[in-house]
Specification:
The chain is mainly α. The chain has one domain. The chain has 12 helices and no strands.
Length: 268
Protein backbone atom coordinates (compact mmCIF):
# COMPACT_ATOMS: atom_id res chain seq x y z
CA UNK A 1 0.00 0.00 0.00
CA UNK A 2 1.47 3.38 -0.97
CA UNK A 3 1.81 6.50 1.18
CA UNK A 4 -1.29 8.16 -0.21
CA UNK A 5 -3.48 5.17 0.59
CA UNK A 6 -2.11 4.98 4.13
CA UNK A 7 -2.76 8.68 4.66
CA UNK A 8 -6.34 8.32 3.45
CA UNK A 9 -6.90 5.33 5.74
CA UNK A 10 -5.43 7.20 8.69
CA UNK A 11 -7.70 10.17 8.08
CA UNK A 12 -10.75 7.91 7.66
CA UNK A 13 -9.94 5.90 10.80
CA UNK A 14 -9.55 9.00 12.92
CA UNK A 15 -12.74 10.47 11.51
CA UNK A 16 -14.73 7.31 12.26
CA UNK A 17 -13.24 7.10 15.76
CA UNK A 18 -14.14 10.75 16.39
CA UNK A 19 -17.69 10.22 15.14
CA UNK A 20 -18.33 7.34 17.54
CA UNK A 21 -16.40 8.92 20.38
CA UNK A 22 -18.08 12.33 20.34
CA UNK A 23 -21.54 10.83 20.03
CA UNK A 24 -20.79 8.44 22.89
CA UNK A 25 -19.34 11.13 25.16
CA UNK A 26 -22.33 13.45 24.70
CA UNK A 27 -24.68 10.56 25.44
CA UNK A 28 -22.61 9.64 28.51
CA UNK A 29 -22.70 13.20 29.85
CA UNK A 30 -26.47 13.22 29.49
CA UNK A 31 -26.83 9.95 31.37
CA UNK A 32 -23.97 10.04 33.89
CA UNK A 33 -22.15 12.93 35.57
CA UNK A 34 -20.20 15.75 33.91
CA UNK A 35 -17.08 14.51 35.74
CA UNK A 36 -17.21 11.02 34.24
CA UNK A 37 -17.98 12.46 30.83
CA UNK A 38 -15.03 14.84 31.12
CA UNK A 39 -12.61 12.06 32.10
CA UNK A 40 -13.74 9.93 29.16
CA UNK A 41 -13.56 12.96 26.87
CA UNK A 42 -9.89 13.40 27.77
CA UNK A 43 -8.89 9.87 26.75
CA UNK A 44 -6.73 9.69 23.57
CA UNK A 45 -9.39 7.68 21.76
CA UNK A 46 -9.50 10.02 18.78
CA UNK A 47 -5.71 10.26 18.59
CA UNK A 48 -4.93 6.54 18.83
CA UNK A 49 -6.26 5.52 15.36
CA UNK A 50 -4.08 8.18 13.74
CA UNK A 51 -1.05 6.72 15.48
CA UNK A 52 -1.96 3.21 14.36
CA UNK A 53 -1.55 4.24 10.76
CA UNK A 54 1.50 6.40 11.43
CA UNK A 55 3.13 3.34 13.01
CA UNK A 56 2.19 1.16 10.05
CA UNK A 57 3.65 3.59 7.56
CA UNK A 58 6.56 5.34 9.28
CA UNK A 59 9.74 4.21 11.02
CA UNK A 60 10.26 4.30 14.78
CA UNK A 61 12.16 7.59 14.63
CA UNK A 62 9.34 9.41 12.83
CA UNK A 63 6.75 7.98 15.24
CA UNK A 64 8.80 8.96 18.30
CA UNK A 65 9.26 12.48 16.94
CA UNK A 66 5.52 12.82 16.32
CA UNK A 67 4.77 11.55 19.85
CA UNK A 68 7.09 14.19 21.32
CA UNK A 69 5.12 16.84 19.45
CA UNK A 70 1.85 15.39 20.70
CA UNK A 71 3.16 15.15 24.27
CA UNK A 72 4.10 18.82 24.38
CA UNK A 73 0.73 19.72 22.88
CA UNK A 74 -0.98 18.31 25.98
CA UNK A 75 0.00 21.69 27.42
CA UNK A 76 -1.76 23.44 24.54
CA UNK A 77 -4.94 21.47 25.19
CA UNK A 78 -4.78 22.36 28.89
CA UNK A 79 -4.63 26.05 27.98
CA UNK A 80 -7.48 25.52 25.49
CA UNK A 81 -9.53 24.21 28.43
CA UNK A 82 -8.40 27.03 30.74
CA UNK A 83 -9.68 29.57 28.23
CA UNK A 84 -12.93 27.71 27.57
CA UNK A 85 -13.72 27.36 31.29
CA UNK A 86 -13.06 31.07 31.84
CA UNK A 87 -15.38 32.12 29.01
CA UNK A 88 -18.25 29.59 29.21
CA UNK A 89 -21.46 31.24 30.34
CA UNK A 90 -20.14 34.72 29.65
CA UNK A 91 -19.94 34.64 25.86
CA UNK A 92 -21.63 32.70 23.04
CA UNK A 93 -20.12 29.25 22.51
CA UNK A 94 -18.75 30.20 19.09
CA UNK A 95 -16.72 33.01 20.70
CA UNK A 96 -15.66 30.71 23.56
CA UNK A 97 -14.30 28.14 21.11
CA UNK A 98 -12.60 30.80 18.99
CA UNK A 99 -10.78 32.14 22.06
CA UNK A 100 -9.85 28.65 23.25
CA UNK A 101 -8.59 27.70 19.80
CA UNK A 102 -6.51 30.88 19.74
CA UNK A 103 -4.84 29.80 22.99
CA UNK A 104 -4.15 26.35 21.50
CA UNK A 105 -2.68 27.82 18.31
CA UNK A 106 -0.46 30.30 20.17
CA UNK A 107 0.93 27.55 22.40
CA UNK A 108 1.33 25.24 19.40
CA UNK A 109 3.45 27.82 17.59
CA UNK A 110 5.68 28.15 20.66
CA UNK A 111 6.02 24.37 20.88
CA UNK A 112 6.95 24.12 17.23
CA UNK A 113 9.80 26.59 17.82
CA UNK A 114 11.14 24.55 20.77
CA UNK A 115 13.50 21.58 20.41
CA UNK A 116 11.74 18.20 20.26
CA UNK A 117 12.94 16.62 23.50
CA UNK A 118 11.25 14.82 26.38
CA UNK A 119 12.37 17.34 29.08
CA UNK A 120 11.01 20.19 26.94
CA UNK A 121 7.65 18.43 26.53
CA UNK A 122 7.38 17.77 30.26
CA UNK A 123 8.35 21.37 30.97
CA UNK A 124 5.55 22.65 28.74
CA UNK A 125 3.07 20.32 30.44
CA UNK A 126 4.26 21.40 33.90
CA UNK A 127 3.83 25.11 33.16
CA UNK A 128 0.41 24.60 31.54
CA UNK A 129 -0.63 22.25 34.33
CA UNK A 130 0.17 24.85 37.00
CA UNK A 131 -1.86 27.45 35.10
CA UNK A 132 -4.74 24.99 34.77
CA UNK A 133 -4.60 24.11 38.47
CA UNK A 134 -4.46 27.73 39.61
CA UNK A 135 -7.26 28.92 37.35
CA UNK A 136 -9.48 25.91 37.99
CA UNK A 137 -8.97 25.33 41.69
CA UNK A 138 -12.33 26.94 42.54
CA UNK A 139 -14.32 25.46 39.68
CA UNK A 140 -16.84 22.96 41.15
CA UNK A 141 -16.82 19.52 39.59
CA UNK A 142 -20.34 18.73 40.71
CA UNK A 143 -23.21 20.18 38.68
CA UNK A 144 -26.84 19.48 37.84
CA UNK A 145 -27.48 16.59 35.48
CA UNK A 146 -28.31 17.22 31.86
CA UNK A 147 -31.85 18.29 31.06
CA UNK A 148 -33.49 15.80 28.74
CA UNK A 149 -31.94 13.23 26.43
CA UNK A 150 -30.86 13.60 22.83
CA UNK A 151 -32.54 11.29 20.30
CA UNK A 152 -30.30 8.75 18.61
CA UNK A 153 -30.33 10.53 15.24
CA UNK A 154 -29.12 13.76 16.89
CA UNK A 155 -26.24 11.96 18.59
CA UNK A 156 -25.32 10.36 15.25
CA UNK A 157 -25.33 13.76 13.51
CA UNK A 158 -23.05 15.20 16.18
CA UNK A 159 -20.66 12.32 15.73
CA UNK A 160 -20.64 12.74 11.96
CA UNK A 161 -19.86 16.44 12.30
CA UNK A 162 -16.90 15.61 14.52
CA UNK A 163 -15.72 12.93 12.12
CA UNK A 164 -15.73 15.31 9.16
CA UNK A 165 -13.80 17.96 11.09
CA UNK A 166 -11.24 15.40 12.27
CA UNK A 167 -10.79 14.10 8.74
CA UNK A 168 -10.04 17.59 7.42
CA UNK A 169 -7.56 18.39 10.21
CA UNK A 170 -5.86 15.00 9.95
CA UNK A 171 -5.55 15.28 6.18
CA UNK A 172 -3.65 18.55 6.56
CA UNK A 173 -1.45 17.20 9.35
CA UNK A 174 -0.12 14.28 7.29
CA UNK A 175 1.37 16.68 4.78
CA UNK A 176 3.50 18.61 7.27
CA UNK A 177 6.10 16.26 8.78
CA UNK A 178 6.45 14.46 12.14
CA UNK A 179 6.52 17.33 14.63
CA UNK A 180 3.61 19.19 13.05
CA UNK A 181 1.75 15.90 12.52
CA UNK A 182 2.23 15.16 16.22
CA UNK A 183 0.95 18.60 17.19
CA UNK A 184 -2.12 18.27 14.96
CA UNK A 185 -2.73 14.73 16.24
CA UNK A 186 -3.60 16.40 19.54
CA UNK A 187 -5.82 19.03 17.95
CA UNK A 188 -8.78 19.36 20.38
CA UNK A 189 -11.41 18.59 17.78
CA UNK A 190 -13.37 16.26 20.07
CA UNK A 191 -13.41 18.92 22.79
CA UNK A 192 -14.59 21.53 20.30
CA UNK A 193 -17.44 19.46 18.92
CA UNK A 194 -18.61 18.28 22.34
CA UNK A 195 -18.51 21.85 23.67
CA UNK A 196 -20.51 23.07 20.70
CA UNK A 197 -23.37 20.68 21.44
CA UNK A 198 -23.32 20.71 25.26
CA UNK A 199 -25.24 23.99 25.82
CA UNK A 200 -28.37 22.30 24.50
CA UNK A 201 -28.43 19.88 27.45
CA UNK A 202 -26.13 21.22 30.17
CA UNK A 203 -26.12 24.52 32.00
CA UNK A 204 -22.92 26.57 32.16
CA UNK A 205 -21.99 25.06 35.53
CA UNK A 206 -22.24 21.57 34.09
CA UNK A 207 -20.11 22.48 31.07
CA UNK A 208 -17.44 24.01 33.31
CA UNK A 209 -17.49 20.92 35.53
CA UNK A 210 -17.05 18.63 32.51
CA UNK A 211 -14.20 20.72 31.10
CA UNK A 212 -12.49 20.90 34.48
CA UNK A 213 -12.70 17.10 34.68
CA UNK A 214 -11.25 16.92 31.16
CA UNK A 215 -8.32 19.04 32.36
CA UNK A 216 -7.60 16.49 35.06
CA UNK A 217 -8.20 13.63 32.64
CA UNK A 218 -5.56 14.98 30.24
CA UNK A 219 -3.11 13.18 32.51
CA UNK A 220 -4.12 10.03 30.63
CA UNK A 221 -2.38 11.35 27.51
CA UNK A 222 1.00 11.50 29.24
CA UNK A 223 1.71 7.74 29.49
CA UNK A 224 0.35 7.20 25.97
CA UNK A 225 2.68 9.65 24.24
CA UNK A 226 5.61 9.06 26.61
CA UNK A 227 5.58 5.32 25.96
CA UNK A 228 5.58 5.82 22.19
CA UNK A 229 8.30 8.51 22.29
CA UNK A 230 10.58 6.88 24.86
CA UNK A 231 10.02 3.15 24.45
CA UNK A 232 9.16 2.97 20.76
CA UNK A 233 12.75 3.12 19.44
CA UNK A 234 13.87 0.58 22.08
CA UNK A 235 11.05 -1.97 22.35
CA UNK A 236 9.35 -1.40 19.02
CA UNK A 237 6.45 0.88 18.24
CA UNK A 238 3.67 -1.69 18.70
CA UNK A 239 4.71 -2.80 22.22
CA UNK A 240 5.17 0.87 23.14
CA UNK A 241 1.77 1.74 21.70
CA UNK A 242 0.14 -1.07 23.69
CA UNK A 243 1.84 0.00 26.92
CA UNK A 244 0.74 3.57 26.25
CA UNK A 245 -2.90 2.56 25.82
CA UNK A 246 -2.81 0.46 29.01
CA UNK A 247 -1.21 3.32 30.93
CA UNK A 248 -3.78 5.79 29.62
CA UNK A 249 -6.72 3.60 30.62
CA UNK A 250 -5.10 2.97 34.02
CA UNK A 251 -4.88 6.71 34.71
CA UNK A 252 -8.52 7.23 33.72
CA UNK A 253 -9.73 4.37 35.94
CA UNK A 254 -7.63 5.62 38.87
CA UNK A 255 -9.10 9.12 38.53
CA UNK A 256 -12.62 7.71 38.48
CA UNK A 257 -11.96 5.60 41.61
CA UNK A 258 -10.41 8.54 43.46
CA UNK A 259 -13.36 10.74 42.58
CA UNK A 260 -15.82 8.12 43.80
CA UNK A 261 -13.96 7.76 47.10
CA UNK A 262 -13.89 11.53 47.53
CA UNK A 263 -17.64 11.78 47.03
CA UNK A 264 -18.26 8.96 49.50
CA UNK A 265 -16.04 10.62 52.10
CA UNK A 266 -17.79 13.97 51.59
CA UNK A 267 -21.21 12.34 52.03
CA UNK A 268 -20.33 10.96 55.46
Amino acid sequence: MDATAFAILAVAARGIAAAGFVGGVVALMERASPFIGGIVLALPIVTAPAYVFIILHQDAGFVAQAALGSLATVGSVLLFLVTAIALVGRLPMAVVLAGALGAWLATGLIIRALPAALPVSFGVIAVAGLIAWWSGRRVPMTAPAASGRSPLYEIALRGCAAGILVAVVSGLAHLLGPTVAGIFASFPVALMTVCWFLPRRLESAGIRAALRAAQIGMASHIPFFTAIALLGPKLGTWPAFTLGVVGSLGIAVALGVLRRRHLRSAAR
